[in-house]
Design a protein that fits this description.
Layout (H helix, E strand, L loop, with lengths): L12 H55 L11 E3 L16 E4 L22 E7 L5 E7 L2 E4 L10 E5 L4 E5 L9 E3 L16 E2 L4 E2 L8 E14 L5 E8 L5 E8 L1 E10 L9 E3 L11 E11 L11 E3 L2 E3 L7 E9 L5
Parallel strand pairs: 1-7
Antiparallel strand pairs: 2-3, 3-11, 4-5, 4-11, 5-8, 6-7, 6-11, 9-10, 11-12, 12-13, 14-15, 14-16, 16-19, 17-18
Amino acid sequence: MRRLSKRVAGFSLIELMIALLIGSLLMSGVFNILVGAKQAYRVQDELSRTQENARFAADFIARDLRMAGFRGCRSGLPLNLMVTDADSDWRYNLLRPVQGYQGVANAPSQLNAPFSNTRHNPDSVAVLTVNPDQAVSIQSESDGELILVHAHDFALGTTLLAANCDLGALFQVSSDSTGETYVKHEVSSDLSPGNCTNRLGGDCLNPELAGLDHGGVVMPLTARAYYLSTDINGVPGLYRAELGANGTLNPEELVPGVEDFRLYFGIDTDADQVPNQYLRAGDSGFDPDQAISVQIHFLLRTLIEPDTQPKPYTFDGMAFTPDDGHVRREIALTIGLRNRL
């Protein structure tokens, strides 16, 4: 019988090399798509974090600014500042509950290492109010002491506002009476800056009883300064320093990645409760007592660099070209000062 040979088909070396080349091109395209998708995801993820930080920053400061100057019964309540030199110390000057400072050089000296660089010189702001959630009613008033309706937890050196609908008086607690139904407001060397008199009416030179036992309450003062500083890694962020007992300030980082912070105050020059112009604290014609709103500009950057390509940006109408790959965004908001209207 005749045996038939069977031919086996296959690829030649040239065909195999062409196939490998086409496969490599396809894999390279897929790889580039994956790298681009990952890069886009990193950018969007960092921008999402930046926007989230912006919301936090706006919420923190807006809440305090809306309450700035709250004195209990009414916004125009007459005040006696019985804390020594309170009218010249932002931590106690409730008569000027919002104070702006243009640039790092003008920031309050008590703040810890404010941030600035060659492109940005951020502002800072001090905001004062009282906390009605911790109010305790006054039963009787005497020299150096208030008898309260129930026990309190106000520590030595805490700054309190005693107020009814006729008058308010700011003082420091002069003895440790937490858990008791009385609070002392005497002149004491244990306090800083201390009380200027043992009475809450009149003024430091001519003190008298204030009559705060008629419908009065005591409420703790809340004094906070918002400013920019850096963490141990040199990353700038929004910080808040809050007044503690005996004049101490307790700083904390609120939002990382904030690189600039600029404030414009809405000035009402004709008393119609509408801002006539917006000025910074160092501008000519600025009067903090005429401010009825605050416009805030934040510049936020991503915490990591999505890539090394510099990304130009605009902040407060000015164009900047950075020397890094961070993505930056500006947010702005306007806040009405409710207790100034």
